[in-house]
Amino acid sequence: MIDEMFTLMETEQKKQELAKVLECNRYTERFGLALTEEQARELMVQRKDTLKETRRVEFAEGILPEIIRSFCDSQYIDNRTYAETLGRLQEIFYHYKNESMDELTDRELLEFMRQQFEEICFGDLDYLESTCLERFTRMIRTEHADSFYQGLRDEYRLHVTENEYQKLSEETRWESELYRTSLEDLE
């Protein structure tokens, strides 16, 4: 009985997610982009596989509608490669959500991805993934570690002190403009 209810709820959730993805076509058609129902279903299956691979869990809708809205007006995406590009962007997003240690909001990560995709990578997903996002998340991890270890070691007294991690954990978001500026300085 409970298994049947769970299956029914899961089926309904998938229908709603599919409808939200296909609803994006209304907006993206003005840019010459649209997903078929089959492509949308494939992207949802790919999302499920990517979540397993990255060991992530989501209880709400996936990031795909946000990716679609963020990238649909890109000069580097056309209808021939639209579904494939969305699939890659979805994979990259989840991978770097992990790599950033979830210190970025979804919106911050998507904005950074979009800006780099357009202005630095010129639509090259491999460069976005292996260079821009790698540098960016390395910087975030380093900043996170520096803040963490700063609280563990008091440089003046040279002994372990109170952990300042709580200050970091109370942060609601990272200042994305600061990281963008720092990243530009690296190049």
Provide key terms for this protein.
mainly alpha; 8 helices; 187 residues; two-stranded antiparallel ribbon; single chain; 69% helix
What is the helix fraction of residues, given as a range? 55-70%
Total strand segments? 2
How many helices does DSSP assign? 8
Give the CA-CA distance, first to last residue. 59 Å
Molecular shape? globular
Strand content: under 5%
Order of helices and strands: HHHHHHEEHH
Q: How is the largest sheet built, in terms of strand order?
A: 1-2
Main sheet makeup = 2 strands, antiparallel
Average pLDDT metric: 80
Spatial extent as radius of gyration: 20 Å
User: Uncertain spans, ≥5 residues at pLDDT below 50?
Assistant: 151-174
Short description:
The chain is mostly helical. It contains 8 helices and 2 strands, in the order ααααααββαα.
